[in-house]
Amino acid sequence: MERRGEAGGRVCMSQTVFPAHADHRGELSAGQLLKWMDATACLAAEKHAGVSCVTASMDDIQFEDAARVGQIITIKAKVNRAFKTSMEVGIKVTVQDVLTNVEKIVSVAYATYVAKPVGAGKIELEPIKLLSAQDHLEHTLAIERRRIRLGYEQVFENLMLESNKEDTFEDEDAVSTEFTHVQSIELVQPPHANHHGNTFGGQIMAWMETVASISASRLCHSYPILKSVNMFKFWGPSVVGDRLVFNAIVNNTFQNSVEVGVRVEAYNCEEWIKDQARHINSAFLIFNAVNDKGQLLTFPKIKPTTKDGMRRYRGAVVRRRIQLARKCMLSAKEDKPSDPWERSNQAYMSYSNVATLTHLAAKLGWEITSTLDDVKIWTHEEGDVLSLKVEMQVKIPSRLAFSLLSDFTLCQQWDKHVLSCEVLQAVNEDEKIYYVTSLPVTGDKPRDFVILVSQRQPCKPSEPYVVAVKSVTLTSVPPSPEYCRSEILCAGFEIHSESNSNCKVCYFNQVTSGLMPYLVANLTGSSKAIEDTALECIKFLEREGSKS
Ligand SMILES: CCCC(=O)SCCNC(=O)CCNC(=O)[C@H](O)C(C)(C)COP(=O)(O)OP(=O)(O)OC[C@H]1O[C@@H](n2cnc3c(N)ncnc32)[C@H](O)[C@@H]1OP(=O)(O)O
């Protein structure tokens, strides 16, 4: 059976947030929002398919801003691409303040719906009609997102195998995960289901959010706020009359967030008596919590007490890596030209070079993402800014490491991505401008950089040596057609003395489009380029150090 494609597959829902939709803070509850999002997206899918559709999954959902009572929520859903029997629907949620007219984005999400005509076989969907450049772009990107969506399990399994090592839980204050287990039950009634009697996906998501939030509250002693959801998948249907049992438990905590896993099992009357559950849905929800001043709370460490708990604990770390990789892709902005290096602003530029690196290094909330014997990789998230730290243990004195790392003409000896490096201006003993060329990241054009390297010795033994790096613009070295001009926002080294013969070298980099593919590949386990470069750097420092 074939359906004709109709222009559109677009639907818009507008709602005023009333107290009945809100939580105790007077903000629109995440559960209510998920219900509206699912209903709008399903109606868009059905408009295209011309038959009933069911929710197969909702990709990672991030909630950027809250909506308050009295504000207007607008949900726009559009079918981006029809595959065979399934469609990707893009959902954009905005909130508008009635008094000021200011509009903000609450969430952008992607869901997959499958056409399911009642009492008939599968139907093959018509392609959608592309009316604008934006439609073309979304259509192209939809196939990429489908690849990520359908390949997610494989990436996850590979990373789980890689992380298959015993964790130790020495922290005495760590809270047992069992303490956060919450169970709840719901009877599916007609208002919870569509006209065919199938439970609304959004209703199931809303119930899941409620139990997950109770589970998270056991740890933070505050009201958790849903920040993101790691893929809702609807494995099988449930209908009016089914009993749905929800089990939620905290899987892991990170600096300012907690991951709660929820499993949903359905039973009809007969299955209920025989205790035969149907696993219909699982999802992982990430919450923050704030104090009364709106500052993010730090979650306590947790310790799993069972084999399953340990698997969930490691699974949360892996999901966090995949989620960071996604964030990395989204946060890497177009490279913008850096500030011009002019006589009038040289002192300011050198100061800001060192100050920006020092601030980045001092930030709280770095999270470890991978560990080798001598190399540790950390990431830091703040708003949409993602940064990387690579920590290396080196068996040479810190002073020597500083002198080797601050001479950028030597970096070709340990970083195989660097093609050439020359000094353009030795401004003074502590400031130099270099011209660097490096291997292409995408396409086949090599990249080039004009960078200011500022080096600083410590005033006290407890302070680190600093080598700060940022891009500058020199009128004498304009971008050329042979190279892709690339920018470094904030990067460099801090070198800490550990003893007379050992030091710890920390490399920092705020993610830009040039670094993004390496970090994404590292986070998703498909490459070890960052670790390999760090190991080469250690080898180079120790080899050169042994000559002195
Ligand atoms: C607002 C009203 C709407 C609702 O709320 S409906 C209620 C909530 N949802 C449900 O109850 C659905 C429960 N799940 C199901 O019934 C089935 O698992 C589902 C989704 C129909 C798929 O089953 P089948 O058709 O047997 O599976 P299949 O392997 O042949 O796949 C058919 C197409 O679906 C796609 N698919 C399946 N699982 C997916 C997932 N997790 N994420 C994204 N896409 C998924 C699959 O790739 C295939 O696509 P295509 O045919 O190549 O276009």
From TrEMBL:
Residues 365-511 form the START domain. The keyword Zinc-finger does not apply. Transmembrane segments: none annotated. GO terms for cellular component: cytosol. Keywords: Cytoplasm, Fatty acid metabolism, Hydrolase, Lipid metabolism, Repeat, Serine esterase. GO terms for molecular function: acetyl-CoA hydrolase activity; carboxylic ester hydrolase activity; lipid binding. Gene3D superfamilies: 3.30.530.20, Hotdog Thioesterase (3.10.129.10). Residues 7-119, 178-293 form the HotDog ACOT-type domain. Pathway: Lipid metabolism; fatty acid metabolism. This is Acyl-coenzyme A thioesterase 12 isoform B. It comes from Patagioenas fasciata monilis. The gene is ACOT12.
